[in-house]
Amino acid sequence: MDGERFGSFEQIKIIVRYELLRHLRRRRLYAVLFITALIGMLPLIVLKGLNVGFPEVKQWTSTYYGYISLIVIVSGAFFAGDAIASEFEQKTGYMLFPNPVKRTSLVIGKFIAAFLPVLLAVGFYYAIGVISMWATYGTIPTATATSFAYAVLFSCSVLGLTFLFSALLKGSMGATLLAFFTLFLILPIIGFVLTFTGNEPWYLPTYASGIITYIFDPPAKRVEIIPTDGLKFYVFYPDFLISVIVMAVYFIVTLLLSMLITNRKEMA
User: Fold this and answer.
1) Model-level pTM greater than 0.70?
2) pLDDT tens-place string over residues 76-106
3) 58-76 burial by CB neighbour count: b if 16+ within 10 A, else e?
4) Inter-axis angle of helices 172-181 and 144-168, to 10 degrees?
5) How many CB atoms lie within 10 A of CB 197?
6) Cα-Cα-Cα-Cα dihedral of 144, 147, 151, 152, to 10°?
């Protein structure tokens, strides 16, 4: 049993190393870091260029780190969209699967190899934010570390969902686009419609990710009702504990489903 575990661990290490090298060869990591730097520096350049004063620190951090969801979704699509689908689309599975490599180890190794670059991008963005806040305000909000932890958890849920699409579909491009548009457009639109009808979309990971920024200035009330002419507009703020649980469940369940589907999937 110990030898089996050691063998699986070695397989995961090899897969992680190979996948990271593949990302470097395709220059995906450089592209994501460039996009991250652009998103991180552009607001600072615009404010400085227009000679506009910076807002109060809580308002600035909430606005600045609001872009982290976009970085996570783009990075997740970049590094995880073709993780499983490529083995079936490019027929590399014919060479890989007959070897004594567990498909579970394959999924775990590829997940780690996708998670590390996403973590680097998220950390890079937060580093830019921390440096700019220190230079501008001379202080760093204590909630920054907690916000970073929430961003990492959201990254895991995004990667898990992207891996699930990659395991379900045989085309890398289809899996990548489906994951991106689901997280960037479809789920936010569903959340908006539910909110408009007075239903809190607490079970959507994109809605739960709101705690990444709300931690800087937690709202006094979780629900606000704004009455207008014959209508009521609802504004919901995600609960911190429930949101953490939702993102953790998405991460665990989607990753387990990815393993199950990959184990049962046949080469065509």
Assistant:
1) yes
2) 998 998 888 887 666 554 444 445 567 788 8
3) eebbbebbebbbebbbbbb
4) 140
5) 8
6) 80
Cα separation of 20 and 235, whole Å? 42
Q: What residues does 225 pair with on adjacent strands?
A: 234
**Closest to 163 (Cα-Cα) out of 218, 103, 215, 221:** 103
Strand runs labelled E in the chain: 223-227, 232-236
Instruction: Give burial (CB, 10 Å; 0-12/13-18/19+) of 247.
Output: buried
Contact between residue 137 and residue 151 where contact means Cβ atoms under 8 Å apart? no
First to last CA, the chain: 33
What is the tens place of the pLDDT at every residue in 28-81?
888 999 999 999 998 888 877 777 777 788 888 888 999 999 999 999 998 998
Give the pair of three-digit tokens for residue 172: 């890398």
Residue 128: φ, ψ to 5°: -60, -45
- The residue among 22, 81, 28 whose CA lies nearest residue 258 is 81
From the centroid of its chain, how far is CA 4? 32
Give the phi and the psi of residue 54 in degrees, each rounded to 5.
-75, 145
The one-letter amino acid code at 265 reads K
Q: Under a CB-based contact definition with an 8 Å cutoff, are residues 22 and 109 in contact?
A: no
